[in-house]
Amino acid sequence: LEKMTDLVAVWEVALSDGVHKIEFEHGTTSGKRVVYVDGKEEIRKEWMFKLVGKETFTVGATKTKATINIDAVGGFAYEYTLEINGKSLKKYMENRSKTTNTWILSLGGKDYRVVLEKDTMDVWCNGQKMETAGEFVEDGTETHFSVGDYSCYIKAVSSGKRKEGIIHTLIVGDREIPEAVE
C-alpha cells in the first residue's frame, strides 16, 4: 500500500448505518485526486490539469451523496470542504441531530450504536436496518426490535410542549439508555 503523501483532508461523518471516515488526497503538482471512504478507494484521477473543482461519491449503506469541493484560496493554497446531501457538513450534522436519535450501548461485552430516523421510524443498529414492530400504548407508541439476545424498544411520548415535540427513549430490558451526542 503506497503511503498517502498527498492527504489533505479527513472527515468523520455520522450516518444512520455508522460513522464513516472520508479521506482526500490532492496532488497539487500532478493534479491527482483520490477519495477513500472507510479506507476503500472510491475515486482515483491522475494528471488532472484543473486543480480546482469537485468530486462526488456516495457514503454508507444508504448511498448518501457526498461532494468534496476544491477551491483555490490564493497562490498555491487550496481549501477543501465536504458537503453531505448538498449541505455543508456542519449544517448537515445540525439538521441530523433534529431528525435522528442515537444511542451507544454495551450489551454482553459488545458495543452497539442504535439510530432512530424520526421521519421514517427506521431503526439502525451497527450498520444494519432492523426489523421492527410498532405498537400503540397508553401514553404513546413503542417500536420493538432485538439486538442479539436482547429485547429493545424505543418509546415515543409527547413532551406536552410544542417546541420539544416527541421524546424518544431507548429501553433495553428494563433499563433506559441515555442518548449519545455525536
Please provide a written account of the structure.
- With 182 residues, the protein is mostly beta strands.
- 6% of the residues lie in helices and 59% in strands.
- It is built from 1 helix and 17 strands.
- The chain has a 5-stranded antiparallel sheet with strand order 13-14-15-16-17, with no helix packed on it. Strands 1-2-3-4 form a 4-stranded antiparallel sheet, with no helix packed on it. Strands 5-6-7-8 form a 4-stranded antiparallel sheet.
- It is elongated.
- The model has no long low-confidence stretch (mean pLDDT 91).
CATH topology of the largest domain: Lipocalin
Beta content comes to over 45%
- Uncertain regions spanning at least 5 consecutive residues: none
Q: CA-to-CA gap between the ends? A: 31 Å
What is the count of β-strands? 17
CATH class of the largest domain: Mainly Beta
CATH architecture of the largest domain: Beta Barrel
Number of helical regions = 1
N-to-C SSE series? EEEEEEEEHEEEEEEEEE
| Average pLDDT level | 91
- The secondary-structure class comes to mainly beta
The 3D shape can be described as elongated
Q: Could you describe the largest sheet, including whether it forms a barrel?
A: 5 strands, antiparallel
**How many structural domains can be distinguished in the coordinates?**
2
Helix content: under 10%
Strand order of the largest sheet: 13-14-15-16-17
Radius of gyration: 20 Å
Organism: Urocolius indicus (Red-faced mousebird)
Function: Plays a role as an inducible effector molecule that mediates Fas resistance produced by surface Ig engagement in B cells.
Subcellular location: Cytoplasm
Family: Belongs to the FAIM1 family.
